[in-house]
Structure formats: structure tokens, C-alpha cells
Amino acid sequence: MTQKPLLERIVQTVKKTTVEPFLFLVMFGLNSRLITLQSLFHDRACRISLNFSHEICDHLDDEENYIEQIHAVKYGNNLYNVFIMISTVPALVMATFLGPWSDRYSRKYPLLLATAGVTIDTTLQAVITAFPNASPYWYLLSASISGLSGGIIIIMSSTYSYMSDITDERSRQSRFAILEFFTIMATPVGSFIGGQVFRAGKYLPVMIISPCSFAFAWLWMRFYVVETKPRRFDITKREIFRDLFKLDNMKSSFKTCAQIRPGNLRLQIWLLLFIGFSVRLIQLGSLAIGFPFTRKIFKWDVSRYSYTTTVFSLINAGMTLTLVPTFSRKLMVHEAAVGLVGIMSLMAKMVLMSVTVYEYILFYAWFAGTLYACGGIAVRSRISKLVNRKELGRVFSLLATCESLSPVLGTISMTQIYNASVHFYPGLSFAMAAIFLIPAACIFGWMMSLPTMSFTQYEESEAAKNMKELKKVSSSPNVKSNELK
């Protein structure tokens, strides 16, 4: 069998892309301003909220301004925590409504709604940034638009539900890995461009990049991505809209995960939800204190931090795209084993970060954590096989809800621990994060002893067993003698 030319294979792969470029554009817009936004809160806290002089705030990282830096960073971190809460908590409620609704009516409309909300929000933030004397509390007000439209939570959950709709059980883990690759690649590209633009033009140009990227993502979703749900003609648009706000939508997500299932499938679902929550909590929590940590220990600025994280994010993306398909397709490695690799990678990163006093230890830590994405891929791949297709949106909605609690809880808990321990042990947050991941590693270790049987295969196996038992009963001598009588 002749192998297809490389160019032809690339063209065929591009034709298969659906939501991958969309998610890349969204995550690019998010990551391009992530570190800049934290630094912006520190700067506005210094100049506006704490009313320090411009001379101090312009040289906040100098040794003589150490006390002012601690106060400004703490205040800015607290503002960032509130910002995350406002943009996340309302989105959690929206996710529980929109997830079950999307199972019945549409995958595209929730994505369009959430992307439009994020675009408007980031546009307003760019306008606020254009006014140097504007209070940082205006950013908190604009964040409510993202929260009420569903924000990143709806975007992530609906994207993975869409991918589950268009894939089968055999190819799903590889397609999830490709989707994760696009997500991971957005981190270095966004961080690098954001850092370089910040070096050239400071805050405002970086804040303009995000709404432009989100707008392109909305256009891609609107005009290129095909709806997977058939159009309903048996119900009016008004009734479809009303159905969005029914409490049954919220209940159905929990009922789907709580309903009795054969074997230990229900237990696996809840344990996977816990793992997904744990991984995201530590990942995003550590990301929230990464810049303040390196700013204090090594005196890094936004550009240096963005450039360095770009390099390791590229390594992360390459390792994920290479190893996950190799594990799943060529080596046929158990999904739980892939997940355990991800958990151990993240734990190693946290342990090394907790003892970092030199830059080379920090580089070892980031390299050790390059396979952390395997944990999230294994969770999504496994959980998609434990339910039928009609339940995917509800389960991924609840998974997104659990994972979306993580930015709030992870950011708040790790920044508060960092604020409290910055004077005597800045790495305490990372040490506690490593301990928190131990249950997730134990769960994946237990799941490695279980068969990789999907919900459909389990039902077929149970049906085959029942048929065998029925044949044994019907062919027994007692049954035959009764029939003769």
C-alpha cells in the first residue's frame, strides 16, 4: 500500500479541522494578555489604589522599593482574585443551563454567545486601559459581561462536546490530543507576542490584541463550523429560548452523573470529575502566582517571563502531540496510565518549584511539567466513553463546571498562601499543591487495574452474558422435561 504524499496528508488534515482553530484563537486572546493583566493590576494598585508616587511605581522592582512592591503586588493579587470570581461564578450557572440545552438544540449557539460576551468584555478593558487614571475597579465591572455570557467555561465545555459529536470512540483520544495541542500552542504564541508587544508599547497594545483575536474566533465559528445538531421543526424558536432557563437543565447534568450505571461506571465518572477539578486547580493556581513568584525571586519583568514560558510551552505542546497518540494508538497504553503520567509530571513541577532558589532549578521544574496535559486528556477521553452520546453535553457541562471552579479556588487559595508566606517561604503554595495532587495520582493508579471498556461495550458485554445464561436455562434437562409434559 503506497503512502500518500506529505502535502496531500497535510491538506486532508486541514480539511478535518473544525473547532481547533477556533479554540486556538480564543486561547491566544486569553494568553496574550494574561501576564500583562496581572502586571496591570499591580501597576494600577500602586498608582491609583495605594497612591504611591510615579517614581516608585516606575521602579517597583528596585531593592529600595521592596516594601512598596509587596503591598502593591498583594493588593493587585486581591483585585485579580475578584476579577476571576466575577468572570467565572456567573458562568458556572450559565454552564449548568447551557450544557443540557446544547444536547437537544445546538452546539454552535452557546459558543457564539460566549465568544461574543468575551469580545465585548475585552474591548471595554482595552478602552479602560487607554485612561491611565481610571480605577482598577472598572475592570471588575466589565468582567461581569464575560460571566453572564458563559465566558471561557462555555467555550471549553461546548468545544469538547462538539468534538465528541464528530468522533468515534477509537479516534476520540487522538482528536482530543490534537485539540489540546492547539490549546497548548496558543500559550507560547500568545505569551511571546504579548511579551514582545508589551516591551514595545506597554499595556494598551497588548489589551487590544485580545478582542481582535476573539472577534476572529467568533467569525470562524459563525461561518466555518457546521452545526452537529439537526434543526428542530417541531418546536418554535420562542419555546427553544424559554427551554434555556428551565431548572430541569441544571438538574439533568447532576442526574446524568448520579444515575445508577452498570459496574463501577458511576464511581469512575465522579472520580474523573474530581481529577479534572484537581488538575485545573493546581495548573491555573500555579499560573496565577508564577509571575509574582519570579518577579520577587529573580526580578523578572513581563517580557522575560513571557519569553521563558513561551519556550517551555512549545516543548509542552510538542511532547503532548507526539506522546499521547503514541501511547494510545501504537503502544495501546491504558488511559489511566496516560493520566498518571500527567499527574506525576505536574507533581514533579510543583515539588521543584517549591525549592527553587536558582534559575536553573526553575527551568528543571518547568521541563518536568511538560506532560501535565496528559491528565486532562485522559479525563476527557475516559469520561466520554462512560456515557452515551446523548449525555455528552450534560457530562461535559458538569466537568466544565468542576474545572471552572478551579480558576476561582486555585487562584484565590494559592495567591493568598503566597501573600501570607512571601516573607519566609515563597514556594509554600507549590509544596501544598504537590500534596493536593496525591489523591488524583492514587485514583489513576487504581483505574489502571480496570478494563478500558466503554459504556457501549459494557452494555454489549452484559447483553451477551444474559443471552448465554438464557441459552443455558432453555437447554437444561428440567426445562425440556417440563415442555414435554
UniProtKB/TrEMBL annotation:
<protein>
    <submittedName>
        <fullName>Proton-coupled folate transporter</fullName>
    </submittedName>
</protein>
<dbReference type="InterPro" id="IPR036259">
    <property type="entry name" value="MFS_trans_sf"/>
</dbReference>
<feature type="transmembrane region" description="Helical">
    <location>
        <begin position="424"/>
        <end position="447"/>
    </location>
</feature>
<dbReference type="GO" id="GO:0016020">
    <property type="term" value="C:membrane"/>
</dbReference>
<feature type="transmembrane region" description="Helical">
    <location>
        <begin position="137"/>
        <end position="156"/>
    </location>
</feature>
<feature type="transmembrane region" description="Helical">
    <location>
        <begin position="79"/>
        <end position="99"/>
    </location>
</feature>
<feature type="transmembrane region" description="Helical">
    <location>
        <begin position="269"/>
        <end position="293"/>
    </location>
</feature>
<feature type="transmembrane region" description="Helical">
    <location>
        <begin position="395"/>
        <end position="418"/>
    </location>
</feature>
<feature type="transmembrane region" description="Helical">
    <location>
        <begin position="305"/>
        <end position="324"/>
    </location>
</feature>
<feature type="transmembrane region" description="Helical">
    <location>
        <begin position="177"/>
        <end position="198"/>
    </location>
</feature>
<dbReference type="InterPro" id="IPR011701">
    <property type="entry name" value="MFS"/>
</dbReference>
<feature type="transmembrane region" description="Helical">
    <location>
        <begin position="361"/>
        <end position="383"/>
    </location>
</feature>
<keyword id="KW-0812">Transmembrane</keyword>
<feature type="transmembrane region" description="Helical">
    <location>
        <begin position="336"/>
        <end position="355"/>
    </location>
</feature>
<keyword id="KW-0472">Membrane</keyword>
<dbReference type="Pfam" id="PF07690">
    <property type="entry name" value="MFS_1"/>
</dbReference>
<dbReference type="GO" id="GO:0022857">
    <property type="term" value="F:transmembrane transporter activity"/>
</dbReference>
<keyword id="KW-1133">Transmembrane helix</keyword>
<feature type="transmembrane region" description="Helical">
    <location>
        <begin position="204"/>
        <end position="225"/>
    </location>
</feature>
